[in-house]
Write a structure and sequence with these properties.
Distance between the termini: 17 Å
Number of strands: 8
Largest sheet: 5 strands, antiparallel
Helix content: under 10%
Radius of gyration: 14 Å
Strand content: 35-45%
Number of helices: 1
Strand order of the largest sheet: 4-3-2-1-8
Order of helices and strands: EEEEEEEHE
Length: about 100
């Protein structure tokens, strides 16, 4: 899932059975990627809280990341949400999104 999609500061969240990863893209700088281990599970509940100040990622009820926004300028940090699903292991079932709720 990408939040702030189309902005100057998109943040990509990737969730797998064992890990969660964020990749932040800041103009003029290399991508910043952070990975955390998760308890192995067939499913995970993910919550993303996005504000002009930060992106907070909560997985299975525990805050996993809080990433401050590089800018507080809503014109540069505002963006949409993009969702993609992929399967990196042909022997496993495709991941699915069971529910998605976006609130202002």
């Amino acid at each position: 899932m990408t939040v702030r999609d189309g902005s100057a500061y998109p943040c990509v969240l990737t969730v797998g059975a064992h890990t969660v990863r964020t990749t932040e893209r800041i103009p003029g700088a290399p991508a910043r990627t952070t990975v955390r281990r998760l308890a192995s599970a067939g499913s995970h509940r993910v919550r993303l809280d996005v504000s002009p100040a930060a992106v907070t990622v909560t997985v299975d009820g525990a805050v996993t990341f809080t990433r401050p926004a590089p800018s507080r300028d809503a014109g540069r940090t505002g963006g949409g949400v993009a969702l993609a699903v992929r399967n990196e292991d042909p022997g496993q079932p495709w991941p699915r999104v069971a529910a998605l709720r976006i609130l202002p």
